[in-house]
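Input structure tokens:
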């Protein structure tokens, strides 16, 4: 199968902007965040304030109503797209799904032979996310891509430094001049339209990797003009439209790619992601299901469908079933954390703890695993273990507000109010709007601390 394109993955980011972020605004760590047009929701709590990222205030109101099943919801603030595009770091900070999303897309690019795009996604993970540098799955994929001839920037730099240290031998003496021999002039072969289309498709990929989406679209469009049967060009252009938030055009292009190559599971996944971004979760699930029929061993398709069930449909049982199958096919720490959070949403702390424990075994430097397990232990009143896990999460990620709250909660319930107050102060210093931190602060004040 030709190299296939997979568009932005689940819980997807509607714009990938990698400029230096503006000064970080503060939002509650566990709010329900909705991206432009109601594409996705992040966070586990629907009871705290709703922060809506939308293209207009009217659209934000619609999204807020959708999130509350039609009730007239009030939200703290809506953020226009222009500001959202400067706030990718906020999504990374508050959504474990960010890392899962890039890793899924990078793996799918790699599996389809698109090593340049896989390299671009892994580089973004390594550069933008602290935890990625400690994540075994990311590092393992990074090494696989290097072996395919696509080293990371750090690997290229190390190779260049090593090459500079080598002794360069002197150039050989110039060869004696020879009389030129007359040769028959050969006319270069004229490339076929299909060959020209492939060239333009490759140029589009280059522009895509540079983040120049308008030129990428122009190249893919030219490839389609030259070869209207080139399914990859439609899939690639659809991916860029999805990144630009033009989900209708993305869906149209992916539909044409499916018509040209109905057995291409990756195109169903790509269209499913665009449906998901558009808020049409039932059609997204239908496309993920068709992808699974075509590729029953595709763990990413199960993960994406499970995430849609979990985050958007709140159907935790189906989410757990899908992520369980993904774990059976390709177990990794991030999938265990996804299933654990579904168990946590159901209030099944024992199973959640078991999955967080397995995730930590696979990735001992995963601060989120320790943090979430600390919360579960606190809810089970196992305060000593909660303190131990929160302490480890803080060691791994000292600017993480949540574990300070969880440890403070455990100290308070053990009667150590002084240490509890110190932890709550640190929590609110890192994130003044963290609702659970504010609640614990109020409770300590009522107790005279």
């Amino acid at each position: 199968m030709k190299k296939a394109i997979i568009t932005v993955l689940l819980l997807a980011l509607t714009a990938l902007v990698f400029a230096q972020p503006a000064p970080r605004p503060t939002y509650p760590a566990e709010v329900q965040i909705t991206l432009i047009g109601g594409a996705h929701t992040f966070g586990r709590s629907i009871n705290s304030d709703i922060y809506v990222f939308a293209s207009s205030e009217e659209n934000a109101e619609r999204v807020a109503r959708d999130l509350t099943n039609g009730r007239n919801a009030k939200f703290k603030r809506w953020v226009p797209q222009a500001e959202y595009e400067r706030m990718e770091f906020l999504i990374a900070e508050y959504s474990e799904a960010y890392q899962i999303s890039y890793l899924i897309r990078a793996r799918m690019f790699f599996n389809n032979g698109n090593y340049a795009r896989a390299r671009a996604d892994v580089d973004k993970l390594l550069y933008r996310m602290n935890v990625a540098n400690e994540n075994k799955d990311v590092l393992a994929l990074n090494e696989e891509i290097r072996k395919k001839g696509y080293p990371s920037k750090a690997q290229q730099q190390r190779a260049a430094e090593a090459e500079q240290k080598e002794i360069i031998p002197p150039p050989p003496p110039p060869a004696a001049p020879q009389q030129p021999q007359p040769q028959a002039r050969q006319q270069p072969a004229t490339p076929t339209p299909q060959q020209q289309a492939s060239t333009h498709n490759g140029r589009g990929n280059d522009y895509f990797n540079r983040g120049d989406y308008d030129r990428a679209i122009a190249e893919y469009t030219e490839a389609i003009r030259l070869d209207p049967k080139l399914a990859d060009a439609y899939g690639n252009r659809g991916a860029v439209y999805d990144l630009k938030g033009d989900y209708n055009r993305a869906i149209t292009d992916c539909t044409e790619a499916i018509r040209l190559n109905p057995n291409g599971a990756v195109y169903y996944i790509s269209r499913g992601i665009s449906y998901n971004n558009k808020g049409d979760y039932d059609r997204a699930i239908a496309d993920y299901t068709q992808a699974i029929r075509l590729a029953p061993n595709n763990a990413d398709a199960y993960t994406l469908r499970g995430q849609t069930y979990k985050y958007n449909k709140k159907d935790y049982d189906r989410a757990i079933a899908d992520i369980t199958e993904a774990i059976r096919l390709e177990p990794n720490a991030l999938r265990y954390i996804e299933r654990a959070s579904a168990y946590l949403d159901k209030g099944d702390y024992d199973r959640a703890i078991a999955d967080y424990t397995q995730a930590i075994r696979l990735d001992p430097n995963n601060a989120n695993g320790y943090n979430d397990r600390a919360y579960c232990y606190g809810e089970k009143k196992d305060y000593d273990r909660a303190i131990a896990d929160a302490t480890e999460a803080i060691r791994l990620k000292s600017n993480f507000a949540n574990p300070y709250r969880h440890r403070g909660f455990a100290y308070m319930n053990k009667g150590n109010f002084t240490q509890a107050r110190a932890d709550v102060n640190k929590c609110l210093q890192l994130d003044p709007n963290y609702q659970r931190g504010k609640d614990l602060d109020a409770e300590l004040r009522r107790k005279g601390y």
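The longest strand covers residues 75-79. Residues 1-49, 68-79, 81-95 have pLDDT under 50 and may be disordered.
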